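Progress report, Aim 2. The chain analyzed during this reporting quarter is listed below.
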Amino acid sequence: MSCAGTVEKLTQVDIAENALKNAVKCEIPTISVVADEEFLPFKEDTFDLVVSSLSLHWVNDLPRAFKEIQQVLRPDGVFVGAMFGGDTLYELRCSLQLAELEREGGFAPHVSPFTAVSDLGHLLSRAGFNTLTVDTDEIQVNSPGLFEVMEDLQGMGESNCSWNRKPLLHRDTVLAAAAIYQERYGHSDGSVPATFQIFYMIDWKFHESQARPAQRGSATVSFGGLAKIDGLLSRGKK
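Predicted structure tokens for the chain:
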């Protein structure tokens, strides 16, 4: 799809320089900037559109990142984002926790922390966004077993990013987790699911031209009259 006629300039931002070097080339004039989402090096009211795809779960301070994005948007600019949600990899997380409790008497986080959908709208609103839209979806990927799930996550660059993560897992614990994973979540064909919950966001920066809710008490039609709509419509067709 070509968007050269509608997009004048594209600015790519990533904290990893190699990710920018390996970005797909396009016909739009592009600038690459190595930067942290929590400290965006752009002036206020710079961009008409900010897009983020499955990277915000790596951010340490999500409220600050949302605030930074809101500030660099121009009035009536839009933020379109997708990020992993709180139910992502719940099968793996629960299996590891149960195995550690059984074998070691306690557990540590082995899956990166994710945001709950109940918190996301509040965080976006607190950052100053207007006309919030948040949707959620789940994608389930089947694998032969726990070890293949962990191998795929490592290949995606999605290993546990927590600072307080445990440095290693004992072999007995991992084997127990694999058995629990299979027993609790396994399919009849022997495969196991890995669920990825994804939040989709479309949020606008305020502008005077945007539609606003009417003042409380200014309505001229009662919701009670909605029951009469079918009768009025059928009468109008006669």
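The mean pLDDT is 86. The first strand starts at residue 10 and ends at 14. These observations will guide the mutagenesis work planned for the next reporting period.
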